[in-house]
């Protein structure tokens, strides 16, 4: 690993450490905030849906812009957008304004989706055979979100109720996290896209980038897109409703941060090990295994109602996402050139966030009408069915062509 790659990898990791603070807030509070401001419990899925839909709208153009101007200018803009969004949500809570809260959640969702494109920037800096490891190293920074919850946000909720005014200060704490992320991202140079050109195995970037319709038809890409969309949409839909489900089961609002913290440990705590396993055993296998683990963990939410049980189920949900999503992203990076990569990964994130927004809305309706058991098994089936399709579908030599481990 060259000094430039090592330095950039540490800085991108640091940026995701900052982003994890905002991520923790959004995961724990998005389903509570809009309900608290409006007083309408039937819209509990609307807050997460706004967050995810805004991310879907923003990430496609952001990916295309990354291919034109480089990775870091776009990622830095994501941090700025996130700081503004957290302040707007806080103001909406303070003044009990649902439109302000909705606008702020949209800005925060867009920012989170843009900053998460850091994983593609991380992957392309590493040799093709070590890209899952590269993504894993940078994503490891996000495990700090497991610390922010119980250490900072949980105690802040210790004597507060989930009222609109009480939620204003926790959201405001997202601003310094985003400011720090912007400063760290400003130190990343040269741009990861430039570093990627040094690898001889890369596609010839002198050739014009292929249209998106050709990119999504390349061997290995459809399966990777399915894995990415299914894993992110199911994980995000369940995670963003977990806070409301926990409160509905009689748990304190502060307990939500403990559950989300363990979920984040599952998502990122073992990511370094997961990256090595994916590089060793192949991306197609990791996609199937991760989705199956997600299915089992979602089903477990119907049986485990205590803080410990829900935390364990969310831990498994995060770990399953870890395997499937890192494998899918690595495959998408491997199947595209530097001038195509932002567009392809951005398209994947667009579809993933859009589907996740729909699942959050639908999940809120299912939970309100039929309860947690229906929600848990519906989410489990949405992870299990793609896993079954990928299992019986040939891997199209995807890993064999690009990874010596398969």
Structural class call reads mainly alpha
Number of domains: 1
Strand content: under 5%
Mind telling me which CATH architecture this is? Up-down Bundle
Any idea what the shape is? globular
List the helices and strands and how they pair.
Blueprint: H1 3-38, H2 46-69, H3 71-94, H4 98-115, H5 118-125, H6 131-139, H7 145-156, H8 168-172, H9 174-185, H10 192-196, H11 212-215, H12 221-248, H13 253-269, H14 271-281, H15 283-300, H16 307-334, H17 338-370, H18 372-392, H19 398-402
Helix pairs in contact: 1-2, 1-3, 1-4, 1-5, 1-6, 1-7, 1-9, 1-12, 2-3, 2-4, 2-17, 3-4, 3-9, 5-6, 6-14, 6-16, 7-13, 12-13, 12-15, 12-16, 12-17, 12-18, 13-16, 14-16, 15-16, 15-18, 17-18
């Amino acid at each position: 690993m060259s000094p430039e790659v090592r330095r950039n990898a540490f800085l991108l990791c640091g940026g995701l450490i900052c982003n994890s603070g905002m991520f923790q807030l959004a995961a724990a509070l998005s389903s509570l905030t809009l309900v608290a401001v409006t007083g309408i419990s039937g819209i509990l899925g609307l807050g997460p849906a706004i967050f995810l839909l805004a991310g879907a709208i923003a990430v496609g153009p952001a990916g295309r812009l990354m291919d034109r101007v480089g990775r870091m200018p776009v990622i830095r803009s994501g941090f700025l957008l996130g700081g503004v969004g957290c302040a707007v949500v806080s103001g909406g809570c303070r003044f009990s304004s649902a439109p302000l809260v909705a606008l702020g959640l949209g800005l925060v969702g867009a920012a989170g989706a843009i900053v998460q494109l850091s994983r593609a920037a991380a992957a392309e800096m590493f040799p093709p055979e070590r890209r899952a490891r590269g993504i894993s190293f940078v994503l490891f920074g996000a495990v700090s979100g497991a610390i922010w919850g119980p250490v900072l946000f949980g105690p802040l909720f210790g004597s507060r109720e989930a009222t609109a005014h009480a939620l204003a200060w926790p959201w405001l704490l997202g601003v310094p996290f985003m400011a720090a992320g912007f400063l760290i991202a400003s130190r990343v140079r040269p741009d990861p896209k430039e570093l990627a050109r040094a690898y001889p195995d890369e596609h010839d970037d002198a050739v014009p980038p292929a249209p998106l319709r050709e990119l999504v038809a390349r061997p290995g890409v459809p399966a990777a897109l399915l894995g990415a969309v299914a894993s992110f949409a199911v994980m995000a839909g369940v995670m963003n409703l977990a806070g409301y489900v926990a409160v509905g089961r009689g748990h304190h609002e502060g307990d939500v941060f403990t559950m989300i913290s363990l979920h984040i440990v599952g998502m990122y705590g073992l990511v370094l090990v997961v990256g090595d396993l994916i590089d060793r055993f192949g991306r197609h296998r990791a996609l199937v295994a991760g989705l199956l683990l997600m299915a089992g963990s979602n089903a477990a939410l119907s049986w485990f109602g205590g803080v410990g049980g829900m935390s364990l189920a969310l831990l498994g949900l995060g770990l399953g996402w870890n395997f499937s999503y890192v494998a899918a992203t690595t495959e998408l990076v491997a199947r595209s050139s530097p001038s195509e990569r932002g567009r392809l990964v951005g398209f994947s994130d667009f579809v993933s966030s859009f589907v996740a927004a729909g699942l959050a809305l639908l999940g809120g309706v299912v939970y309100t009408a039929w309860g947690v058991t229906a929600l848990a098994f519906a989410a489990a089936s949405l992870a299990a069915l793609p896993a079954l399709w990928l299992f019986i579908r040939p891997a199209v030599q995807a890993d064999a062509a690009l990874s010596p481990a398969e």
